[in-house]
Amino acid sequence: MQATPSPQVIEEAIRWMVILQSGQASPEDYEACERWQEAHPQHQLAWDRLGQLDQQVRQIPPPLARATLHDERRISQRMNNMLQRRQVLKLAVLVGGSAGLLGLGYQKLPWRPMLADYTTAVGESRHVALMDATDIHLNTASALDVDYDASVRLFRFYQGEILLTTGHQQAFAQRNFIVETSHGQIRALGTRFLVRDHENGILVSVFDGAVEVAAAGVKRIVQAGYSLVFSRQQLGSLLEASRDSLAWINGVIVARNMKLSLLLQELERYRHGTIRCAAEVAELRISGVFPVHDIDKALDAVADTLGLEIKRSWFYRTLLDRVR
Fold it and tell me: What's this model's pTM, rounded to 2 decimal places?
């Protein structure tokens, strides 16, 4: 009979599970987790037992709708807190029965996006209509809080990608419409715009109206048809905003003479694991429309178009390479 994993190993396993399910895990994170599992039999045992509850952790029901945003936010937070604690308790009991681990792990792990008002899992998209007629589309692995008061409609963007179309209900029309990010603020000026995590900060693309971006001690107006990347250090240059970047709302990625490496990077966002290509084919160009809710089908289409071979291995690792 295998020994029960130690509390320290349990904590490490839960930490890895949260990282890999966060929607922001890098290929290096997956490789590091794999090395961690191989380092000791207890690591593999803890990981296998966590996997038994993986599906239960993902099936947390969404908060019930309420008459006002204030009530909805308060009740949804309460429900999410209760349900998350219940699921983590299951993990601790299943893996090692260590109640003491629960309090320690909960404080250290990045729970905040998981407890947001509106979230999506990896590969999931969601549409939300608010009471002021604002429309929100959330792409894969996204998290957003919404908070209205007498003077402001505040949206706290934690991760992922969202498309916002501002509502104009008379009772809310005079309230500032602010999206708060980790790198700065975006103030909507009656508009439709996209906010997305970017390797250099936050990408904002405007499709109707305009927004005001405030970051790095500077403010800049971004008009319809333009985008920019901003961070705590700087505001980038204005670039043309492509409507192809909205194709995910219809469940597809549109590629126009796109580098293979970039297309695979986009597809990787929609499922767990890594999707890579050999260095010698990374610069190949491809055009097409690829489904985001059936990544294997998309990869088959890519491979057929470019005459490549798909090599799939355990732990959701996929490599595209020339046929040998």
Answer: 0.68
